[in-house]
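Check the record.
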Amino acid sequence: MPTDDLPAPTAGADHTPAGAPTGPSGPPPPPPGDRSAAPSEPPPADAALPPHTHGAGPAPADAPVPPVGPPVGPPAHRTSRPSVDRGADATVAPSAHASARPPAPPSAGPTVPASSVRPTVDPALPPLVSVRDLRISVGGVEVVRGVGFDVHDGEVFALVGESGAGKSLTARSLLGLAPPGARTAGSVRLRGTELVGARRARLAALWGRRVSLVPQDSLSALSPVHPVGDQLAAAVRSVRGVSRAAARARAAAALDRVGVPAARAGAYPHELSGGMRQRAVIAMATVNEPDLLVADEPTTALDPDRRALVLELLAEQRAATGAALVLVTHDLDAVRDHADRVLVLYAGRHVESGAVATVLERPRAPYTAGLLACLPTAPRPAAGRSRYLPTIGGAPPPPGEPATGCAFAPRCPAADAGCRARTPLPRPVDGRDVSCHRAEHLPGAPGELFAEAL
């Protein structure tokens, strides 16, 4: 089947898009049970797509597959994007802004691991993403409660917390996605464009061009009825409008960069291993170089060595394109190794946020300290304490529980009556923002709060 004639991937009972919400000029209607559903209100038939500051208009309504890359021209604030040698991709038909990039310097000396590359973030520039007082209700129950943060060009921003903390809902709001029937309030701005309340057509103009999604389940993210190489090539054509040959070459180069051999480009998703499929969805997410990658627990169900490989691949692609990365994960070691800043969530609320080195090395919120104390790599407890791994007793509150007081107070060893009576708000403490009344009164090693006495 010719690449440009591919229909939008729709098969699969829980088909989740790879790289971005999928569809011709936006994603197809999500199948039943898909929690990544876009806002339910369809745009009017004559809805015009918003003007595009990148110089490329949105994909036509009959585009074969969803956009999974950035606009053709450079964004207004992407001034710190690194210049890189794109290797095989150099033979691909260049995008409209390729000539604006300076040539990469010749390689010299040993290769620096991609995860160690940290682009310079200029706080004076407007943030790429700005989230303010984000609130998401599902079934009338508020599950994300007043979260706010910024993400700057080129940085890695991690969202961590227990299952049910609201990480994935918060991350997917950066694409304008929410579960069916959900209501979103507050503000989410991507390069100045408000996503909360935006019509589907406006969101479709951003998906793939400015923001792409790397989902948890690579098997359901890819269409089962088309080879992965054809899916990438069709995605390129839907965004860039290049020839079939140029699209195939660009797709092959993207797959090669993530370690998928050219011979496997003709394979169907079910014919690839889990690790190989995850590489393919990373290639699809980055093939058109969006401004922002949202990786929603991309290492789920992978064994440890594959998890490390996928995280390194994400770091390499981010370093190569200059994209910012929002990483949703339970893995605090991965956050320490790959992220620049971190936001800890609990029961849909902000707990602690700041630079990774500050938050993870000297936590000032008991919940953050408890998460770190439970790691096998945590320092040994002081004398007189059990050598068993500490645990955080109890369980998170069920969704919909009244919001008065600190949600973590019933499980917190440092809580007092004031914690149960007043809801803590984010405030600056010791170089980070903390939502805790007791932040200044914790022991020097807060993790000791959770170590059991002998």
